[in-house]
User: Fold these one by one.
Assistant:
Number 1:
Amino acid sequence: MSVVKTITSSQERKRGWSISLAPDLLPVEVPPPFDVPPLSVEVLQKMYHVMLLIRRVEEYLLDAASEGRIGGAMHTAIGMEANAVGAAFATRPDDYVTCTYRGHHHAIARGLDPGQVIAEVLGKASGCARGKGGSMHMVDPEHGLMGTNGVVAAQVPHAAGMALAARMRGEDRIALTFFGDGAIYQGVMHETFNIAAKWKLPVIFYMENNKYSEMTPIWRTSAIEDLYTFPKVYGIESIRINGNDVEIVHAAVSWAAERARSGEGPTFIEAITYRLAGHMAGDLETYRTPEEREHQRQADPLLVLRQKLLDRNVTEEALARIEEAVAQDLARAVEFAETSPWPDIAEAYTDVFHL
Ligand SMILES: Cc1ncc(C[n+]2csc(CCOP(=O)(O)OP(=O)(O)O)c2C)c(N)n1
Ligand SMILES: [Mg+2]
């Protein structure tokens, strides 16, 4: 798709450059090279519950950040929930997962208690990293989440290493690593693609292409539009999907996981998605127009799934019950986190590296 239009406001003229609406950001329909069998209504309802819970937790955290109650940077995945939930439902609890600093959605989708997520972001002792990691350092090895990472692309070779370890131990676990569109030009990505392909490692490379690297739209910096074509030069099976449709995400990751477990090696998935909130809490979002964001709201993965459920004869009353249950889950999580103690000062140097 080509650039839609260019908007020049007085503020933009002062700045000397204008904001162009990105190429059509609504999820691109690419025929999937695998079947997308309809999931049962029960499974879809569970997915709706988890996706909505992620949304509500992150909205709560954005409010907390605006009240000045969060130290350090916090990145939300509002609008990207289907990627985490579809993938989590398609993998096993003992599979390995790594992801970026934008990781609340993956933590909750894997099964980390939302109370521990909120507590960690607030810096409370009951957080998943005892309040020492904050938003960018979610961890939950019990559910396979081996750590979220603040260094762009660093989590990708980690996952390949975990896949290799599983192979060497004779286990049939796989590794799934999430990264953004901005990671694709990091050298370590290509080193990892090469060795993963060469050794046929059981790893899934999952790109959440939300169209922006921090404040820069990917189409301003990438010479090519079809990012999923990169790994093909290493002989990696590579596809592009609609990352805002949880059923498609689920089918794609199930397919890739099956390939990995049966020794066929790595798969690369480029999932087209969009972040509806800023890059991080406090982002003024001057690099995109409100029109662009509103346009994208039409493809909000929660709306897509809600409509899917209605189309499959789930009633408004049944959806309202899920929404009420989510409100209760959130209230419990908030109560847990807010009433948790701060870490003891004596803890400052335990479980951390220091010289
Ligand atoms: C190695 C490295 N270089 C630069 C940064 C600064 N940085 C933080 S987020 C980011 C953009 C990454 O964009 P993308 O991979 O698309 O992920 P998104 O934030 O959109 O989820 C950059 C460059 C970093 N954290 N690590
Ligand atoms: Mg991005």
Number 2:
Amino acid sequence: MLTDTHCHLYLEQFVRDLDEAIQRAMEAGVETMLVPGMDLETSREAITLAEKYENIFAAVGFHPTEAEKMNRESFAMLSKLAEHKKVIAIGEIGLDYYWVKETEKRIEQQQNLLPHLELANKVNKPVILHLREENDAESGDATNDLLDILEPWHKTLITLKSRPGVFHSFNGNLESAKRALEMNFFIGVAGPVTYKKNDSQRDLVRQLPLDSILVETDSPFQTPVPNRGKRNEPANIGLIADKIAEVHRTTREAVAQITTANANRLFGWEAYA
Ligand SMILES: [Zn+2]
């Protein structure tokens, strides 16, 4: 049984065959899928999917590249959505210095994070973090700014302290991963771990304990080898689990079991099964 902890199933790439894609995922052993929103509208769409499909759960939040859509009114509406029982996390939220280069807009992203973190604490649901550096570097200002915002927040947590969230599709170095693990964050591993040139990410994954890893497809993006060039979908999650298994010298079954248990521990969705 596998879990896809990050897939954007409401995007137009799935309009024509969503039911079939979900069917293929289930046939491939995907037990549960988590659909994070990127703004108010897609957060609502994620909830609609979660209401329709028993094995889909939702997260709500303003993605850093959608920062301009966040204001007092839209955030109040999002906060309402966060109380929905199939919303099990706040996200995806974070910092994106790849697409956003202006200092002012980067500061806006940082400021947007704070109410999301407060909301997570209030509704007792972990956060799903997006982190992307300028030029896709392994470390830099985005990583430092994000960790500097998270660390004081983490100190204030009580029940979320042991399960504050996940760094989705983590692309950073071991030093940043250690700072994240120090706060009990999970590390999301996606398709890039299968890319031929990505030895640095495989080296990183080798050094992460399996009980800190979540697997995710980030569908429809980041399609794993050998399906690169095609649309990604949750049924591909096994390709990522296989690569993690290879790197950790274990089996797909072991990776599936541990990472599914990790996801249950973080999101607490077993109660719905
Ligand atoms: Zn995403």
